Amino acid sequence: MKTAVVILAAGEGKRMKSAVPKVLHRICGMPMIGAVLGTVRQMRPDKIVVVAGRHLELIRDAIIGPSPGSAIDSGIYSGTDAGGISFALQAEPLGTGHAVLCALPELKGLQGDLVVLNGDTPLVRAETIRSLLKQHRQRRNDITVLSFLAGNPEAYGRVVRDSAGNVSAIVEEKDADGEQRKITEVNSGVYVLSSAALRILDAIPLNLQKKEYYLTDIVSLAGKKGLRASACCIGLEEEFMGVNTRFELIRAAGLMRKKIIALLIEKGVDFIDPGLVYIDHTVSIGATTTIYPNVYLEGSTTIGRGSVIYPNARIKDSRIGNRVMIKDSSVIEGSSINDAAMIGPFAHIRPGSVVGRNARIGNFVELKKTKVGQASKASHLSYLGDAQIGRGVNIGAGTITCNYDGVNKHLTVIEDGVFIGSDSQLVAPVRIGKGAYVGAGSTITKDVPREALAVSRVAQQHIPGWAKKRRKKKT
Ligand code: UD1
Ligand code: CA
Q1: 220-250, pLDDT tens digit by residue?
Q2: How confident is the model at residue 80, as a pLDDT?
């Protein structure tokens, strides 16, 4: 093993005032620790150890997938390669120094360097860690701390340098004197440690104020033990923002959103107002697609080229093809919308639905587990659930599939070229044969043969002069 990474995630995160462990708070659709892991994985280390505390199982489930009975549906890496990630327990949060000690049993056989970083710095970039590692190796250091210049250094440990400019200590705000508090060079929480540095971890003294073993104290300890420590001031402040409070989480999410959208703009996506759009890490969008304000694109959503997503749409875990139009205020979840289809305004496409090429799903239409074939239309006010609809079908306004009998769900099959008149109810299970017509206002309870007309409404009668007589009675 040449390079390993330890991610510290065992802190209590008290400042979040939350029942959820801090590193599982979500940022642009992903738990914070997922963002850190994504970055770390780009470096292809031989091993990654996540140190977690009493929430270890929850954190492990969120990363590599749930163990039976877990409240989490799936982990970030479930189903994909979660190899190389292991977990170490820090039973009590006795500080960042103690947390690294807890990871050591997982790192037996490490010959090279250990990168340590905090699980609460989701914006850190792989290239910055790479250049830290490079400097560590070039300078033949035992300890290299990544530092940066902070506008407001209050939340960070200050990097104290001696008269020769060498780093002599890292001092936390709480422990700092007046002069030290003025220092703006601060500790990012990213370090590289050699094997020699790992051997002095257990000599870190207890911080008497906080009753913790601070990893940062390894810097002052290094001098006493004859090891080389230095601080590399690289990267931008934004990148190392630590998330300790909900305010900081909101700020970090804002910065991450900007990053995600900047990448998409570079790839050729158009935004009417990029500051008003919310897109998860995991979403991909093709060039020349336009996104209007107040759009939410979540989870594993992919959008093709030349599509337009109008205001107030929310699309989650769905595949949207090329030249698709999603009109205002539509919700699409777990579904697939094929090329040149038109959805909305005010459509609700629920999980398991597929809308074919050139199909049209109009206002106040709800689909659930329903397949709509090529060029078929349901333009107004319908509920289509558990239905298979062929090509070139016309679903009239107000059509309802009665798919639920109170116990079970049943299938409605509508074959190619069918015309369903407005305000019809199709009581499932039922099949409407190819090319058939259903008269408006019908309640269909039996299969309709191909090319037939089915009408089930009461025949219309006329009572001559009735209205006139009624008016006379009144006067
Ligand atoms: C820490 C650093 C500080 C640095 C800042 C950068 C220390 C003592 N201070 O401060 O110098 O400027 O990060 O963001 O290291 N954790 C554990 N076990 C513990 C305590 C913490 O695993 O017992 C984990 C936390 O989950 C967190 C990380 O370590 O991910 C940092 O802990 P936190 O309490 O947030 O430290 P800061 O006060 O931010
Ligand atoms: Ca922190």
Answers
A1: 999 999 999 999 999 889 999 999 999 999 9
A2: 62
Q: Are 77 and 163 in contact (CB under 8 A)?
A: no
d(CA 169, ligand 1 centre) in Å:
16
Residues 399/426, Cβ–Cβ less than 8 Å: yes
Q: How far apart are CA 74 and CA 124, in angstroms?
A: 25
Question: What distance in angstroms lies between residue 118's CA and the mean position of ligand 1's atoms?
Answer: 6
Which residues are within 5 Å of ligand 2 (an ion), measured at CB? Answer: 120, 242, 244
pLDDT band at 475 (very low <50, low <70, confident <90, very high): low
Residue 380 annotated as catalytic: yes
Closest C-alpha residue for ligand 1 atom 32: 11
Q: Which residues pair with 279 in a beta bridge?
A: 297
Ligand 1, atom 21, lies closest to the CA of: 11
Q: Which CATH architecture has domain 253-454?
A: 3 Solenoid (2.160)
Among the bound ligands, name the one nearest to the CA of residue 23. 1
For the stretch 173-190, pLDDT in tens is: 999 999 999 999 999 999
Cα distance between residue 390 and residue 337, in whole Å: 15
- The CATH number of the structural domain formed by 3-240 is 3.90.550.10
